[in-house]
Amino acid sequence: MKNLFTVFQLLISINTYSQGSNFDRQIPSDFKVITNHTTSILGKKVNYSAQLGTQPIWDSSGEVIATLHYTYYKRTDVNDNTNRPLVFSFNGGPGSASIWMHMGYTGPYSLIIDDEGYPIQPYGYKTNPYSILDVADIVFVNPINIGYSRILKEMSKEDASNRFFGVNQDIKYLAEWISTFVSRSERWKSPKYLVGESYGGVRVMGLAHELQQNQWLYLNGVVLVSPADYELQDYNYARGGGNIVQPVADFPYFTATAWYHNKLSDDLQRKSLDEVIEISDGFAYNELLPSIAKGGFLNNNVKEEIAKKIESLTGIEYNVVLDNNLIITTGLFWKELLRDEGFTIGRLDSRYKGIDSKDGGTYPEYPQELSSWDHAFTPAMNSYINEKLNFKTDIKYNTWARDELSVRPWNRDNVNIRRRFREAIAENPFLNVLIQSGYYDGATTFSAAKYTIQQVDPSGKLKDRFTFKGYESGHMMYLRREDLQKSNQDLRDFILNTVTNNKSAKY
Length: 507
Hints:
The chain is of the alpha/beta class. 38% of the residues lie in helices and 17% in strands. The chain has two domains: 2-232 and 376-498, Alpha/Beta hydrolase fold, catalytic domain (Rossmann fold, 3-Layer(aba) Sandwich); 246-368, no CATH class. It has 15 helices and 14 strands. Strands 1, 2, 3, 4, 7, 8, 9, 10, 13 and 14 form a ten-stranded mixed β-sheet that branches. A two-stranded antiparallel sheet has the order 5-6. Strands 11-12 form a two-stranded antiparallel sheet. The N and C termini lie far apart (49 Å).
């Protein structure tokens, strides 16, 4: 009877808010639509249900102030969920929907693209034969103002920012939401995992600590997909900021990308990607870092020698390196590497080429790779929700939180994510970490991700709990078909290896 009432409520809601007026374009705070499906994963039949819905966020007085849109995939041919892993998946931005990993990575369907990840028309989607749904149930979550998630209570932008739009605010309300979802779905016994891409990496590192400390919910694993690090990034460096670690941490990415575009010196170009990365990493920390640290007091002969090595390892001309005091910023690199060919390269995936209106300047005019992805993912997701998940609405699916629904400015005050993440790992012997990065990601570089983890655990006592996997692709490494298979398998193996049966949580 309860289920029938839920369906009746949903039908009423849809009839109400799908009429087209602005007044009616308000997502219900608490509803769900469930559909049943069958697919094939790694050649084996998998039966599952797909639950698209919303779940409220309450204030301290119990009033509903917002609702979060989610999609929950649950295998239906498993009788006992006690040992069935549950994965919560987040994208980043901040202000980016879960569309990317939902339709590109781990979900049961993925968008139609070519084998290297470029869009194909007509747009559409197909079954994902590599999805992790065979070994784990998945919840794709859209934080405030993305997907169909919305603030429902009238409030000022300042009040909204104080509640939702910041690193600590984001972590706080999402931890409460996850705890409620686990209770509602009766999954407290299940092994639990968080997956976060880009800023989502910051989010899930913080959530691991918050869930343990204030929701008493302990995880088996955290997966960082192309993770950002707000404690490393200094966006003002090019304008005189003092963070000398960032260009050093990014340096092996420069080498990897130059290798891909055949811009290294001949001797290095003949080496494998792994070999040139190892050489570049050694140079970055053993020679480049101390040279930059000396600034204007560096011996001129040494400076010229270092500049020649940078040219050899990055493809950026010697004079450009000297003119920039040995510092190659990512923006300069994207503009400079293929300048002689009349191209820029992509920020999120540096395999992509762009064409600017002028060859001069130090930063590309537009994100060529993001433009490519947006026009493939959005039509596929909207069609999929309508046709496969049986949800029809006039409410816009927000791929990005922009205009009046923008989540900017994003509060980055009092960010202590690394310290809190280490604390969570140390306090929970079951908690393991997988890092997945594309070698050609220039936004959150694979080499910076390695640096982040090194700083999470400066003692090295927990290093056996970390696993790094690199892929010959960009920020969304799963868009390249070969890496879609590899990355899902790496994630599958990680989950299977960290589910514990009859094992005590002790050192």
